[in-house]
Give the backbone structure.
Amino acid sequence: MIDLSGLYAPVPTPFHEDERIAFDHFEANLQRWISQPLDGVVMPGSNSEIPYLTDEEKLHLWAACANVFQGSSKQWIAGTGVERTADTIHLTQEAARAGAIAALVLPPSYYKRAMTHEVLVRHYTSLADQSPIPILVYNIPAYTGIDFELKTLVQLAEHPDIMGMKDSSSNVVKMAALLKARPGFKVFAGTGSALLPYLSIGAVGGVMAVANIAAVPLRRILDAFQAGRLDEARQVQLSLVELNSAVTTRYGVPGLKYAMEQVGFYGGPPRLPLLRIDVEAQSVIDVLLEEAGLV
Amino acid sequence: MIDLSGLYAPVPTPFHEDERIAFDHFEANLQRWISQPLDGVVMPGSNSEIPYLTDEEKLHLWAACANVFQGSSKQWIAGTGVERTADTIHLTQEAARAGAIAALVLPPSYYKRAMTHEVLVRHYTSLADQSPIPILVYNIPAYTGIDFELKTLVQLAEHPDIMGMKDSSSNVVKMAALLKARPGFKVFAGTGSALLPYLSIGAVGGVMAVANIAAVPLRRILDAFQAGRLDEARQVQLSLVELNSAVTTRYGVPGLKYAMEQVGFYGGPPRLPLLRIDVEAQSVIDVLLEEAGLV
Amino acid sequence: MIDLSGLYAPVPTPFHEDERIAFDHFEANLQRWISQPLDGVVMPGSNSEIPYLTDEEKLHLWAACANVFQGSSKQWIAGTGVERTADTIHLTQEAARAGAIAALVLPPSYYKRAMTHEVLVRHYTSLADQSPIPILVYNIPAYTGIDFELKTLVQLAEHPDIMGMKDSSSNVVKMAALLKARPGFKVFAGTGSALLPYLSIGAVGGVMAVANIAAVPLRRILDAFQAGRLDEARQVQLSLVELNSAVTTRYGVPGLKYAMEQVGFYGGPPRLPLLRIDVEAQSVIDVLLEEAGLV
Amino acid sequence: MIDLSGLYAPVPTPFHEDERIAFDHFEANLQRWISQPLDGVVMPGSNSEIPYLTDEEKLHLWAACANVFQGSSKQWIAGTGVERTADTIHLTQEAARAGAIAALVLPPSYYKRAMTHEVLVRHYTSLADQSPIPILVYNIPAYTGIDFELKTLVQLAEHPDIMGMKDSSSNVVKMAALLKARPGFKVFAGTGSALLPYLSIGAVGGVMAVANIAAVPLRRILDAFQAGRLDEARQVQLSLVELNSAVTTRYGVPGLKYAMEQVGFYGGPPRLPLLRIDVEAQSVIDVLLEEAGLV
């Protein structure tokens, strides 16, 4: 099996003003990411306005990833989790066919009370059994309302084709327990501010919104940590926390899209009901980008 | 505008063992509901495995509702809320074209933090402006993670085409405040155990999973309340609480489908990841149906 | 055993500007409540700044209740729940000695995870076994973080000396299930806006902050409900919701104290860390009191 | 001002079978901790059954700490936070008089909605202004229901006598943001499993239940981290997570007391309503202690 690790950007989906996908801008953005110190991208992730995309649009976006990254050293991971088990399996198989190296899979979450340990284990096991590519579990309770129990993760980690997870809950205690129980499981930090703490307990990298615009300092954190230069790792980590917050919890996808525009990518509008950020939020992000030396 | 009130069943979607929709059974179920003391049905609602249905399947289910109810006194309300504003508008227009009398609309909920008062007001206003049929807001925080603020509901209720709401949070305090501020707003109880308390503060009826199997006692609650026979209303209300719990919070859609089988409807399996209920749960429901005099 | 029902005011503790208890004002307030259509008072309740009172202060406040109410038709219920079981038992015995007709008992709540069904059942059973007066369970999750499970309440209701509860969670669904299982249990609404819905499912009354200032309209709700005049009951109920919200969730104890001042009671300052309400909040309450015809 | 850092054990209060404090055992335990690689202890902390202790008992426990630690290199920190501001100030002054080096202060938490940014800032500022010893803020939302906002912590950290905090929420993202904004603030991990991640972002140590029984491996984590031996730090950290969980979230104070008995301290019973752990839980802890090399 492939051995995933490192830094991944969950990339936004660019839209024209009329909300159609701007495929030309998407390809240009991907070209730009090739020059960044990233290991690859995730499409679609939470930052990609995933619930506003049709399956057909996902296929087109994957084709673009495959096309642009061909011959480069970059990998792309597909986001394939939807509510129905059969649809999730189908979409994952399509992603494999398109060339994804792995699938990052949201849990079904509408019937929250029904998403018991048993139901989640069956869902992911059934998926992994029928997927041509490795599965990464995606835990993001702020969006799904589902927070995987430790015992569910421990059991899923036993499946040979469930190789790891992205954890956006920043629960270092649960992750430490998971890594104690399943030392080889590939844990990725789910937000840029948690990268260094996650590395300290054995995570292999991060899938982080802020990686879209700040791959260079994130790489510095990773390199400094691995070289034992902890002071440097900590200083760079702390320097990113406000910017990370601005493009995630504080201003969300519209904030990230605005920040991308400022550093040379195409950002563009979100799809409704999301709204562009206002002028005040723009000023906050302008300052943070400058402080981080990104503009 | 039409004047909605009374008892509605949010009807399950019947599936064959291979997970295809069983349209023949769906039509037979609808025929059976015609003979029940209901005002109509909602399709799809939360009990319809709404997140597992494609848009195309929804259109076919609506055609079946229109076909079976034609010429009857029953009405059908369409569930049309999806994540993207444009898709919600489109689907609502399709429902109107198919003959729905109103649309019951879930809020977008993936980006929970971004679903502010302003964003929700814009989303529903935009929808109501472009919908040929009246809109009912659907508040079900247990599934969406979104619990509408009072001020948002008060503002939405000012729109001439947003006529009411289904509240599954059973928050009598918030509903009392809403009905004080907007006396004509049509509030429906969202679960069978809350029907009488909701009527007491001015609700006009209920959209309740248990109505699929217990329309007769629910009608008795409504009739007794309106006639001022409060003891009778209370006794019937209390007699239903355990059964109501069993087919909603306790065993969910699979529990409801099992109960439907026992009282003469087609139930059938859920779509995965949902699982059929086990034998122990079946025994619980058997007892409750017998206690309620429904078998 | 006594048979509690009706309307109770959980009365605030009045303080001088230097935070000492103003016993003279407390007795004057009690005298004034005698002339109101209340069945009695609770001291201390959540509105009494209960966590800021010493046990010695509670004894003095109970002596004042006993003294002022002697010979009147009013009853007083003591709030006696503290964290430790032994202390709760001791305090309840003191309250009985002072003349309380019953005790309203908060659950231990610091070690939330440890407050399991078993622990709570043992705690309340041990208390009831050693209490000379009947016990009312007090469920107020907004303050304690403990929300009693249905099964715990059903089991506690079997004890001959646990006669009822105050439920401030306004969970009509759970209360309906409880009253189905234990028809004789005395359920009191815990907030004024829930009185009518609670009565509709069989509650016997309410213990409500707003009863301190609005006993007359609350009594009208109760009387109209019992006489089957549901429209009147509903209209009065809805007329109180905003005022109720202002003196509870919105402005808390300091809001209630301000409102009391406006209608002729002594209010006074709260103990720190609570702060008096500001001028804006005062204006809101002024308007609501006028709309409710209380000033 | 003193410069706190390192490893502290929040020590349990030992009781006799009749629930009286076992002062002789407490002093013997303290003697034993002197020989452990700890910087000191906290008394009372959450593990001390703090809500079951009277103020008088706290004074006696502090006298014991002062007595036993006199002449040793160990420090003791007093837990002094209660609900009322005046009481908290008084208790902190008493602790200072008894010889505490600092006070770890829980927030008032009963009136959760009223504990706004402004109220908390006033409370802690007023305390710090009148305290002879430095203040540490104690954030433990699982017990208090209060989770300090970043902006509140940032503001409190500006006060010259509020020198740091214990954070039991394990929120590395918030702590990173705090340490970016206030680099000199002394942050202590609040649970043993979070020690290494907290150190990675600049925390100065931990106040951890598991330190009562596992000071040696915790010290190894700290030493290895400071020496840049990250693999060793991580391995020791992961080896402790299950034991840490057992004596905190899983079995609570009674679990910790049992574990203490097994490694040579006096444990004894908790005060009611807490119950001793059962035989099954004992076996789990026995195994974990053996795996950790502590028995």
